[in-house]
Amino acid sequence: MFLLILSYVSLFAFIGLSIYKAYQYGHMPMHGRQDLYPIPKEKGKGHYGGSYFEETDWWKKPRETSLFEEIIDMLKEMLFIKKLFDNQRPLWWLSYSMHLGIYCLLAWTVLLFVGAGTELSGIAMNSGHWWATIVYHLTFITGLAGALMVAFGTAGLFIKRTVVSSFKKYTTPQEYFNLAFIFAVTASGLLVWINDPGFDYGRNIARSMLTFSPIEADAALSIHIVLLGLLLIYIPLTKMSHYVGKYFSFHKVLWDNDPNLPGSKIDQKIKTAPVVKPQKSWSAPHFQPEPPKTKEM
Amino acid sequence: MINGKDLKVQDIGKESGKQLTKIDSLKPLPKPYDQPGMEPPLTDPKPEWSEKYCTSLDGYVALDTFEKPKTKEEEDELVRKFLSGLEKMLSAETNKGILQPLMLTLDYCGKCNTCSDACHIFEATNGHELYRPSYRAEILRRIIKKYFTKSGKLLGPLVGADIDLNWETVARLGELAYRCNLCRRCAQTCPLGLDNGMIAREIRKIFSQEMGIAPKPLHENGTVKQLATGSSTGMNKAAFMDIMEFHADDIEEMVGVRYDVPIDKEGADILLIHNAGEFMAWPQNPIAFTIIFEEAGLNWTLSSDFIGYDSVNYGLFYDDGQARKIALRQQEVAKKLGVKKIVIAECGHAHKASAVYADRLTSAEQKIPVESYLPLLRDIVLSGKLDLDPMRNNFPVTLHDPCNIVRQMGIVKPQREILKAICPQFREMTPHGVNNYCCGGGSGFAIMNALNFGEFRNKVSTRKKFEQILNAFQDTIDDPSIPKYVCAPCSNCKGAIRDILEFYEATEKYNIHYDGLVELVVNAMRKFDRPFLEFLRNEE
Questions:
Q1: Interface pTM, i.e. ipTM
Q2: What number is the average pLDDT over the span B260-284?
Q3: Which of B22, B151, B358, B484 would bridge with B327, disulfide CB 3.0–4.6 Å?
């Protein structure tokens, strides 16, 4: 029962803590503009880095933005880590391997639940039913490919950060631990998989979670579940939660170039922002109240 | 002294009193500056400087108002003030205008070093660790970890809380904040969208806003002077009116036609604000603006009101309080005149300060819209109103993209449309547009010349720009009879490029010149018999 409870707790902790993190960033005060071009949503201009500032009387013209362009750019970054690909290819191979592996494992997790649901509906995975066959093989491919890529990526990044001086100097023990932790979870999963190539164990866990029944696990599987559970709780507490931060740093900071025009959302935010007299202020002489009054000479 | 490749973030507080590191090598310049003896060598700081200033980072001094602590009490006070500033930097109460972007950058850096290759200073020093964009950010991150987080206090070096904070760390970090041009090219390449330039500015803010330490050219001779007299040049209203009295005469002398300059014209469509430094250093620039605006028949005015005649806002580089005061004052001037819009002339940081930085300082109804001169100039040039002859600019011309106008405002095409229309031999730098490199004078470097800082600028921070300029003119560089023109539509960039060309004697040896964009436009006007550009007039 412990493993089942841990599975629930870790899953909900991962989701809950990630949402809480997003909530914290989302509720920080509105910041000054930090536009950095190219901004993909600038319709017809995003591809070369242009903006509405290229127009005379820009405030009189309709603001044209393209959600499509923004989503395309976002997908390039999410799915391919394009900036790293463009600017630092040697690291990209390792980083992308790890990230693509994680995406595969996310798909694998969904497929495990689909498989468990299929079995619960009375269709066994080895029944030869077309649906079960598809789910079974997709689960196999995503699970194995994902685990191998994550293991390769994390091990490669760990070694790179240990060997290459310019990385080693900036890497903290915690950052090595993070990589090692992910590797350990993946490696322990691969060890379980060796004796269960069809990922039946995964579907059993999913079935237990769907039916609230205890998870049956040997020592190796128990270790894997515990490690994975702890990792899921740990990730949102660290900078590995950059899947949250990245949304804000692009959409709410670098790409937030919406002008403060009468009636705009920005204007509304400024007008409705609570006026609180700060209790603290900066200490330099020119920040003190009533600075020396100067006259035009 | 630790060499550039071996330097670690933990070294920042070590070897107190000694110079931590020095620039060991510089990236070679292209032909013809690839030969020995073509540039003055790097020099060491004068030993006596170390008694007063912090020369213990890399030997250069940007913070010319910093005074070394003389007693243990003063050392402790410096650290205390820094920590106090750091606390305020992290507080929504005292730093809400940047808190979200700041926390994202502090929280999420993946140490992938992608930012490094984007930095012109890191590249110029052949990858000296001190100038890696993430170096100073990582130091700040680790100090914050150690003093402001539970994990840092509990786990210490295991989570990176491993920087010894002593007065030397503080002093060196203050200097290090002025080894970045705040061009934000590094942020463009960051896979996580983080901004190391912002970190450099935040450190500058702590020094200025909490500790009262900022480079004299930016603070005492910059914003303080501007808030006292009306201009960072020290030009008050009377002096401005004096200059304007002669402005029309100067124009007449240059082009043979008299144009009266509208000043304080209430209800004009446009309030044009120049960088007041132009009146002193490059008067041909405001002259060219006057000619173009008058010929185009615009309803415009200059202001003689306090701060209304100087678009400069050095607060943008180091201090939010000063930046805010200046930006709001410029808005007040425009409102008082009842103009329909403010147009910022050729000054990059003024563009950003007025149009972007100040955009959310007040509610929309309280603002007069701000526009760059570039789209307006593009419309005028392409309208045919000026009767332009491109063959008058028939020499190689390249364009420098000021970071504040291009990368940070997205104004890319108008200047190119103008140059393509009036300069038959226009060629781009590589790279250009939003990917272009800083001139090396950004964030105040262009006007910081105290002690040996000018050497850092000329040898290091402008090096990439000089390389770009030389590469743009490789087809004609060997022929000094052909004039070559670097179009730099920004006062600070012009200042930096002026200094490069002088430092490397590039004008004298290779006939490379610089100036703005409006000068090229006026030079192409058929209406005038004589060339407008000085180097062409001198040739006559």
A1: 0.96
A2: 96
A3: B358
Residue A62 lies in a domain: no
Give the percent of chain B with pLDDT over 90: 97
Whether A47 is in a domain gets the answer no
What pLDDT score does A290 carry? 67
Other Cβ atoms closer than 10 A to A270: 18
Whether A17 is in a domain gets the answer yes
Query: How do residues B79-91 score in pLDDT, each as one tens digit?
Result: 999 999 999 999 9
Q: Are strands B370-372 and B270-273 parallel, antiparallel or unpaired?
A: unpaired
**Residue A295: pLDDT above 80?**
no
Q: In a mutagenesis test of the A interface, which of B89, B136, B192, B223 is the best target, namely the one with the most A β-carbons within 10 Å? A: B192
pLDDT value at A296 more than 80: no
Token output for B370: 């701000």
Q: Is the peptide bond before B32 cis (omega within 30 degrees of 0)?
A: yes
CA distances from B343 to A223, B54, B351 (A): 67, 41, 9
Tell me how many residue pairs between chain A and chain B have CB atoms under 8 A apart: 259
Looking at the structure of chain A, the number of domains it has is 1
Closest CA to B180 of B125, B253, B239: B125
Asked, for residue A217, whether it belongs to a domain, the answer is: yes
Which CATH number characterizes residue A130's domain?
Answer: 1.20.950.20
Where in the sequence is the domain holding A210, given as residue range(s)? 2-30+81-287
All residues of chain B having their beta carbon less than 8 Å from the beta carbon of residue A246 are: 108, 192-193
Chain B hits for A260, CB-CB cut-off 8 Å, are: 359-360, 363-364, 367
Q: Is the pLDDT of residue A294 over 60?
A: no
